[in-house]
Amino acid sequence: MAVHVNRVALIGTGFVGSSYAFALLNQGVTEELVLIDLNKEKSEGDAMDLNHGLAFAPTRTKIWYGEYEDCKNADVVVLCAGANQKPGETRLDLVAKNLKIFKSIVDRVMVSGFDGIFIVATNPVDILSYAVWKYSGLHHSRVIGSGTILDTARFRYLLGEHFGVDTRNVHAYIIGEHGDTELPVWSHADIGGSPILDSVASDKDKLEEIFVNVRDAAYQIINRKGATYYGIAMGLVRLTKAILHNESSILTVSCYLNGEYDQRDVFIGVPAVVGSDGIKKVVELKLNEMENQQFAHSANVLKETMKPFFKG
Ligand SMILES: NC(=O)C1=CN([C@@H]2O[C@H](COP(=O)(O)OP(=O)(O)OC[C@H]3O[C@@H](n4cnc5c(N)ncnc54)[C@H](O)[C@@H]3O)[C@@H](O)[C@H]2O)C=CC1
Ligand SMILES: CC(=O)C(=O)O
């Protein structure tokens, strides 16, 4: 019987893609990694550079720069290709440009015979995840956007700093658009089982300031260094692991809602159970009235932005 070899195909080896490849190699997550980019020289150079680190890696990984045909046997195709935000631009400003790029990429991946799971990181990630679902013809459970995985990690980090506890012991989610209309789910945020809102250190203004810093983190980083990539790269590795190891982990990702949270026909960030089949289940949190309104607003902004591109 043939032994299955895990393969990840990465499309787009810019700041985000190459940081993801580096983190993937360092954590020994996959047996094979193929790098694909419009700029072949860049992906060839990345493959050479990463291979030179293999002597120091925890496991053996076969890495090469390749072609779309290499997606055929991939378990996961990770999409990091496309334009990033320039200072002052929102994620939604990238929609027309990146949808066009994605149409040609997804068509070529599907022509290869690919039959695995797509992970989408390119912005605006919720709308591009919806597009990948439409363009690929795969079941929606097999398209996962990075959604608010990074925003949730930022939130947990800042809360951990404020309360003086390890970020991994903070249980709190950011949901909604990966962008300006996202929201914190304070009603389900706890540390070690104690609701954060009940804590004596929970000054309302401070908590609001923490959320604003989460929401605006990308702008703050882009103003300083032009792009963000390490945080999302590690989030994408976490997501890849959940799929390849069939973990059934709960992560805040962009997935298709079909009535959950009273929303239909939209990809948006919510907690979901992730495993080898992709999205196994959307976790439906019981939101309070204000959170419900904010979530509905966020979904509406995504739907309105998408409308001109997905008529009928
Ligand atoms: N989801 C998230 O949390 C985050 C998403 N991002 C997004 O990730 C995307 C990539 O950002 P960066 O890596 O900083 O950009 P970058 O400009 O460094 O890299 C983009 C890469 O895509 C390649 N590319 C462009 N068109 C292509 C095509 N048709 N086929 C194949 N490759 C193509 C380029 O050659 C380049 O190497 C952006 O949309 C950015 O906004 C960035 C950070 C966090
Ligand atoms: C760029 C982006 O989407 C982020 O860092 O959140």
List the defining traits of the structure above.
binds 1,4-dihydronicotinamide adenine dinucleotide, 2 domains, alpha/beta, phosphoprotein, L-2-Hydroxyisocaproate Dehydrogenase, Chain A, domain 2, 14 strands, 39% helix, 9 helices, binds pyruvic acid, 6-stranded parallel sheet, L-lactate_DH_AS, Rossmann fold, 312 residues, L-lactate dehydrogenase (NAD+) activity, cytoplasm
Descriptive notes:
Helices cover 39% and strands 20% of the residues. With 312 residues, it is α/β, with parallel strands linked by helices. The relative contact order is 0.14. It folds into two domains: 7-145, Rossmann fold, CATH 3.40.50; 149-306, Lactate dehydrogenase/glycoside hydrolase, family 4, C-terminal (L-2-Hydroxyisocaproate Dehydrogenase, Chain A, domain 2, Alpha-Beta Complex), CATH 3.90.110. It contains nine helices and 14 strands. It starts with 6 loop residues before the first strand and ends in a 6-residue tail after the last helix. The strands form four sheets. Strands 3-2-1-4-5-6 form a six-stranded parallel beta sheet, sandwiched between helices. A three-stranded antiparallel beta sheet has the order 7-10-11. The chain has a three-stranded antiparallel beta sheet with strand order 12-13-14. It has helices spanning 15-27, 40-51, 95-111, 125-136, 149-163, 204-215, 217-225, 230-244, 289-306; strands at residues 7-11, 32-36, 62-65, 76-79, 117-120, 143-145, 170-171, 174-175, 183-184, 190-191, 194-195, 249-258, 264-275, 278-282. The site of pyruvic acid (PYR) has 6 residues, from loops.
